[in-house]
Design goal:
Strand order of the largest sheet: 1-2
Helix content: 55-70%
Number of helices: 20
Radius of gyration: 22 Å
Pfam families: TrkH (PF02386)
Number of domains: 1
Keywords: Cell membrane, Ion transport, Membrane, Potassium, Potassium transport, Transmembrane, Transmembrane helix, Transport
InterPro entries: Cat_transpt (IPR003445), TrkH (IPR004772)
GO cellular component, one term: plasma membrane
Order of helices and strands: HHHHHHHHHHHHHHHHEEHHHH
Protein name: Trk family potassium uptake protein
Distance between the termini: 56 Å
């Protein structure tokens, strides 16, 4: 009997893992070329691979300064990696297939379903078309707004280029910037246009394409799905609550909000609340924040963005499900009810599994790094959580990481982008059918 080709024997999660790994490897090779570096010598391969992983996993952690170290060629490679990593390589390959009018096979639809975290294949190609149209339109409009603002500071050509780079980076929640000296958007801490456009890009990229499509169709359907309601309400709550906490904690801090006027303080508080949605940009010095604020941002980064988006973390829907389970248990209720809808038991199990998996990953990596890196534990925990949530915020640890530390952070970024459950499915052997069930037992909880 003739064996199937190896690609046909792989499961969708395995193809996603291999696909992302291949893109990272190609990106690492390109970024290590002398033509990518302004010094003409090329970036050491481990650093090039780290940067490619950070870009493809839309994280933003960097070992060298993007704005000054890389040539235009290197920056364009980063832009391409960010775009492919944010939208997903299967989405980009589907775009090529649609342009060439090629048929999308059932297997390809299954992989797209896995990549977009969808429950079924129904309407998957229609959703892909919407993803591409919405993404490119949003990036184009934002690039134009950025270019107009930066045309006052730079030549028109450079302003347009900067606008394109930052629009792609912010919408895909990557956090790479061209400001130089690892400053991110700190020179524009009180610039309303830059802040508002960047925050809108981060939020739109972080709520997920399913929600975006649902909102766009609201005029016709006159209703939102439960998923969209949960994502929008929890995202809004986290942003507002986060801004209030950061504003109160940092109001008098001379290294952060204390050096800004009233409107600047509000803008900075909101921006630092939005960016843990997994964006990675910042308008104040993250290392200068008070420890309470840094730990609060760790929590926001761990929660992250929403399913089917360009962001990472355990996701807003997972966090909502956990909060709902806690409230239901405290009230003595059996069901978790959100917006008058009962959640299925498998959704609750998946939320608990994903959260525990994420906690174990972050804790174990942080513990290991605390033995190999000579830095305070809070700084290490911040870095690890930022890598897992594909956020990119840093207290300054990344450039000082050892080779082992870089490899561990790379693996954490990779796991955060694909999702722990997807990785687990990709690595597990073919499941066997259960022929029997064990008798039910009881244990005492609490």
């Amino acid at each position: 009997m003739k064996r199937k080709p190896i690609l046909e024997r792989l499961t969708p999660p395995q193809i996603l893992v291999i696909g992302f790994a291949a893109i990272i490897l190609i990106g690492g090779i390109l970024l290590s070329l002398p033509v990518s570096s302004t010094n003409g010598q090329g970036l050491p391969f481990i650093d090039a691979l780290f940067t490619a992983t950070s870009a493809t996993c839309v994280t933003g952690l960097v070992v060298v300064d993007t704005g000054t170290y890389f040539t235009t060629f290197g920056q364009v490679v980063l832009m391409a990696l960010i775009q492919v990593g944010g939208l997903g390589f299967m989405t980009m390959s589907t775009l090529i297939a649609l342009v060439l009018r090629k048929r999308i096979s059932l297997r390809e639809r299954l992989i797209l379903q896995e990549a977009l975290n969808q429950g079924s294949m129904e309407g998957i190609i229609r959703l892909i078309r919407k993803v591409l149209v919405y993404s490119l339109t949003i990036e184009l409009v934002a690039a134009l707004l950025f270019a107009i603002r930066w045309s006052f500071d730079f030549p028109v050509g450079e302003a347009i280029y900067r606008g394109m780079f930052h629009a792609i980076s912010m919408f895909n929640n990557a956090g790479f910037d061209l400001s130089g000296e690892f400053r991110s958007l700190m020179p524009y801490a009180d610039d309303a246009l830059i802040n508002v456009v960047a925050m809108m890009l981060i939020v739109l990229g972080g709520i997920g394409f399913i929600v975006m499509s649902d909102v766009m169709d609201y005029r016709v359907k006159r209703r939102l799905s439960l998923h969209s309601k949960v994502v929008l309400s929890m995202t809004g709550f986290l942003i507002v609550f986060g801004a209030i906490v950061i504003f109160l904690f940092e109001y008098s801090n001379p290294r952060t909000l204390g050096q800004l006027d009233g409107s600047g303080k509000v803008l900075a508080a909101f921006f630092q609340s939005v960016t843990p949605r997994t964006a990675g940009a910042n308008t104040v010095d993250i290392g200068g924040l008070r420890q309470a604020t840094q730990f609060f941002i760790i929590i926001l980064m761990f929660i992250g963005a929403s399913p089917g988006s360009t962001g990472g973390g355990i996701k807003t829907t997972t966090f909502t499900t956990l909060i709902g389970a806690m409230i239901a248990m405290m009230r003595g209720k059996e069901d978790i009810v959100l917006f008058h809808s009962r959640l299925a038991k498998d959704r609750i199990y998946k939320a608990i599994t994903l959260t525990l998996f994420a906690i174990f990953l972050v804790v174990i990596v942080a513990m290991v790094l605390s033995t190999t890196e000579d830095h305070p534990f809070l700084m290490i925990l911040f870095e690890v959580t930022s890598a897992f949530g594909t956020v990119g915020l840093s207290m300054g640890l990344t450039p000082d990481l050892t080779v082992f530390g870089k490899i561990l952070i790379m693996l954490t970024m990779f796991a955060g982008r694909l999702g722990p459950i997807t990785l687990a499915y990709a690595l597990q052997p073919k499941p066997e059918k259960e022929l029997y069930r064990h008798p039910e037992g009881k244990i005492i909880i609490g």
